[in-house]
Amino acid sequence: MKKIVISALIALATVVGVMAIDQAVNPLSAKDCSNNAVAKCGVWSVKEMRNAYNNDTTKGLRNIYNGMGITTDTINNATVKEGYVHKDGRVTIGNEVVATNAISAGRQITNNQRTKHTYNGTVYYTSSTSHFGASKLSAFVFLDKNGRFLGAVLHDCGNPIKATPTKPAPKPSVVCDALKSTILSRNTYRFTATATAKDGARISGYTFNFGDGTTKKQASNVIQHTYAKPGTYTATVTVHSNIADATSAKCKVTVTVAPEPTATCTNLTATVTKRTNVRLDAKATAANSATISSYIFTIADATGKEVFKQPVSSTATSASASTTVTAPGTYKAKVVVVTSVGEKTATACTDTFTIDREKVPGISIIKKVDGQDHKEVAVGQTFTYQITVTNKGETDLKSVKVTDPAPQHVQFLTADKGTIADNSWSHTISSLKVGESASFAITAKVLKEVEGRIKNTACVDAPAVPGAPDDCDDATVEVPPTPEVPIIKVCDLGSKTIISIREDDFDATKHSTNLEDCKKVPTKPVPEAPTELPTTGIGDTLVNLVALGTLVGTTIAYALSRRNIV
Which terminus in the chain has less CB density within 10 A, N or C? Predict the structure, then answer.
C-alpha cells in the first residue's frame, strides 16, 4: 500500500512539473489583464482581435493601433500569421525573421524608458521589447501581399508591435497602357485613358492634350472634347502619380474632324447678386450656317440633385436666367446650347457658386473667483469674482445684459463696471463685436460661517441670441469650519482643585498639568488627646462635654489654619 501511495505521488509530481514547464515556455498560456493591456486579457483568435478593434466604441484601442501604424485595412484585410516577438527586438514566423528593432505600446508607464505618445486624443507609451519578462511572446503577425511585415499584436495583452521589416519594399511603378477615342458627333470625341499603378504607386490624375492646342488636367481618366475646327489631331495623355509622370506610344491617338457647320457653348458665369439671388449668363457661337435655338440652364446641389432648370428661347449668342436658391451650400450651374448641329456644352459652360448660410449669433460667459472655479475664504475676507463675456457667434451683438445676484450669506462690495443694487450686480454691454470679450470684477465677502460651498451664478442675455438667458456659469467659495479647541484637566494652583479648561486658557502661573500638585497638602501635628478617666457620674459627664468642646474648637482652629495655608 505504501509503495502505491509513493508511486501516485511521484506521478502527480511529474504531471505538475510538466505543466509548470509548459507554462514557462508557452507564451500563449498567460493572460495580461492589467491596466497596461491595450486589449484587456489579450486576444487569442483573429476573430476576437478584429472584433476588439472594429467594436471599439471609445476608439482608445483603435487609436493606439493606428498610432503604431496598424490600420483598419491591416486588421481586416492583411495576411495574419502566428509568430513571436522576441526580447531582442526580432519578429519571427517559424524560423524566418520578418522584422527587427521591435517596439511595443501599452496604456501605462511600466518602466522608466517608455516614451509617451498621443494619437487622436488617446495617450499611450512605447518602449523596446527588452523590457519583456520572457524571451519571446506569441503574437499575430500581419503581412502584405508580398509577405512584408506590417505590424503585430501580442496575444496575452493585445498590445501592438511596430518593427523594421527585413524584406525590402517593392519599387512602385506606374505605366500608361492606352488611350482610346470614341466619336460622339462630327467634332466631339470621348477619350478614355487606362493606366496601371503597382507596389505603392498611386494615380493622382490625368492631363489630356487634344492636339488642337488645348489641354485638360483632371482626376478622371475619361474626358470628352469638342474640336472647334476641322482637321486631323493627335491626342495624348500623361498619367500623374505619387512617384512620376508616365506616358507612352500607346497613350496617343489620332482623330479626324470633318468640316461642317459648327456651334459651341463658350462660357457660363454664375453670379450671386444677393445672399440667395443667382444670375446665370451664358455665351455661345455658331458658324458655317449653324444656328442656335435655345439655352437650357440647370443648377445641381453638391449631391448632384437638380434643383433648378429653365429653358430660354433665344437665337442670340448669349442668354441669361435668374433664380433664388435658399439652402446654404455649393452648387454647380450648367448651360446646354441647343443648335442646329446638336446640343452643345463644354467645361467652360459650367460654373460653381456658394450660397452662404445665414450668420448665427452666439455668446458665452465664464465666471471665476480670484481666477479659480472654487476658493476657500474666511468670514469677512474680501475676494473678487471675475466675469468674462465673449461673442462667439458670427454677428455683432448689441445691448448685451449681464446679471449676477449675490448668493445668500455673500455681500457684494464693489464692481469695476455696472451697478450693485439689493446685493445684485448687473451691466449692459452696448456693443460686442464678433470674437470680442468684455471682463468685469466684483469684490465680495462672506458674512457668516456656513456649511458647504456657496455657489454664485452669473448669466448673460443678448436680444439677438435665441433663449433667455443665453448662457450661465458659476464659481463657488467655501468657509472652512473653525477647529474646536481641546478641553484639558489641570490643577488649579489657587484652590488646589482639579478643574477642566480650554487648552488656550491655560496659564502656567495659575495652572499645572500635573494633577498630583492638587494632592500635596502640608500636614500639621494634631494635639494629643487627654487620657480618659473613668466616668463617675454627672460630673464626669460635664467634664466630658467640656473636653469635647475643647476638641471641637481645636479641630476648627486647625481647619482654619489649613485654609490659610491653602
Answer: N
